[in-house]
Design a protein that fits this description.
Its main location: membrane. Helices cover about 85% and strands about 0% of the residues. With about 425 residues, the chain is an all-alpha fold. Helix 4 runs antiparallel to helix 5 (about 125-150) and helix 10 (about 275-330) packs antiparallel against helix 11 (about 340-365). The longest helix is centred in the first third of the chain and has 60 residues, at about 20-80. The radius of gyration is 21 Å and the shape is globular. The protein starts with a helix and ends with a helix.
């Protein structure tokens, strides 16, 4: 009985066993707060149409950032904790080379894509935006890679400091531009992103450590990375399509103003995504480390604590959001959206569904079944696009949020039904 009384609470156990979770959450609060402050400044300075153009650029950056996570960052989080210390120098060299290559390829793709987009009617602004957008992608790719490297090897305090530097520089640059210019444009906003990412890259490189590219090590580790990446890449492409296609469809049919409004709402409700965004960065490492040391039982216990902690944080975040909503929407962002609006409440539901899927995907990845997530995400993507197209005419912008919810719910149900069971994994 005394042992039962002394048993720690699940959330306390999670924090004790994974101390990096606290600093990761702090870093995510900084990142989400920085993105929210950026959105507030830009909406006020540019209006919804200008913010809609910036949002199109930002969505393109996020798509490529998600691809980086699939090809490199998630494999890094799953493989890195299992390596011996003698292999870390070669691992850093290989990972850095891959990050540079992926960043360069993505930037060239963005530059060419926006140069072509500029030929379409109403998109002449895309031509001057192509260069700063490509540079923002390259610097952002390196910054994200260096930050994830710190998280994987349990240096979350340094990663949080990197977040502070990046977003403080970005927000400061935007504030200076707003004060010094009569009109703010998406091009100037992209240059501010470049400046913030540059500061983050400099900080991350200073803490990166020794790195040597060894062909023999690359050949031995390459098949493991590819085995993960070949499933993670289509999964991420599908997740990106599932989450962004409804917004892009609504923006194309209803106009830049509709896209700007949906993105503004999404940015504000990102407060609810803080637990997911923070713990999704370390959940693969927690799962891989728990499974390697304690087996399936340890993996289940770690993910149970993860679930309890994230749901508790979500409840606190939702209460704070609803309490502050009149100030956030009307006074700060100058958009007229009631606290009980369908879009706001639906975005709350969407964030909860995405959060509840996190332990399922971490469990499946730790047990070596990434193909399960790919198939479930494909089903969710079909649901997302189908619901958006079916409901856009009668419901307008609300249909885009319903499409995102349908996609997230379909992917969660598919993952739960097909996730490997304990007996299969043992």
């Amino acid at each position: 009985m005394m042992a039962a009384l002394r048993r720690p609470a699940p959330w306390a156990g999670l924090l004790r066993q994974t101390r990096e979770a606290r600093w990761t959450l702090i870093g995510q609060v900084v990142a989400s707060g920085g993105n929210f402050a950026t959105s507030v400044l830009l909406v006020r300075a540019m209006g919804l149409e200008g913010f809609g153009r910036y949002s199109l650029c930002f969505i393109a950056l996020m798509i490529l950032r998600n691809l980086l996570g699939a090809v490199l960052l998630t494999p890094l989080a799953l493989i890195g904790p299992r390596l011996r210390n003698t292999s870390l120098t070669a691992f850093r060299g290989l990972a850095r080379a891959l990050a540079l290559c992926l960043g360069a390829v993505g930037s060239l793709t963005l530059f060419a894509g926006f140069a072509l987009l500029a030929q379409a009617d109403g998109y002449a602004w895309a031509a001057p935006a192509a260069l700063p957008l490509a540079l923002a992608n390259l610097l952002g790719t390196l910054a994200d890679f260096l930050r994830r490297h710190l998280l994987v090897f349990e240096r979350a305090r340094a990663a949080s400091a990197q977040d502070v530097l990046r977003h403080a520089t970005q927000i400061g640059a935007i504030a200076v531009l707003i004060l010094s210019a009569s009109e703010m444009t998406e091009i100037e906003a992209l240059w501010a992103l470049c400046l913030g990412s540059s500061a983050s890259v400099a900080f991350g490189l200073a803490l990166f450590g020794r790195a040597t590219l060894r062909p023999r090590f690359a050949r031995s580790l390459g098949p493991k990375l590819w085995d993960l990446a070949r499933w993670q890449l289509p999964t991420t492409l599908l997740e990106t399509l599932q989450g962004n296609a409804p917004l892009l469809i609504a923006g194309f049919i209803l106009g830049d103003g509709a896209l700007g409004l949906l993105r503004a709402l999404q940015q504000v409700t990102n407060l609810l995504a803080l637990p997911f965004n923070a713990l999704s960065q370390i959940a693969p490492s927690i799962a891989a480390r728990s499974h390697a040391r304690l087996g399936v039982h340890g993996l289940r216990r770690a993910l149970l604590r993860l679930s309890l902690g994230t749901v508790g944080l979500f409840a606190l975040a939702m209460a704070a959001l609803l309490a502050l909503w009149p100030v956030l929407s009307a006074r700060w962002m100058q958009i007229d959206v009631p606290r009980g609006s369908a879009e706001l409440l639906l975005y709350c539901l969407l964030n909860l569904i995405v959060l509840l899927r996190l332990p399922l995907t971490s469990w499946t990845l730790a047990l070596g079944r990434p193909q399960v997530i790919t198939r479930a995400t494909a089903f969710g993507t079909v649901c997302s696009i189908g619901v958006t197209l079916a409901l856009l005419a009668p419901l307008g912008a609300v249909a885009a949020v319903l499409g995102q919810i349908a996609g997230a719910l379909g992917a969660m149900i598919g993952t739960a039904l097909a996730a490997p069971k304990r007996e299969a994994a043992s």
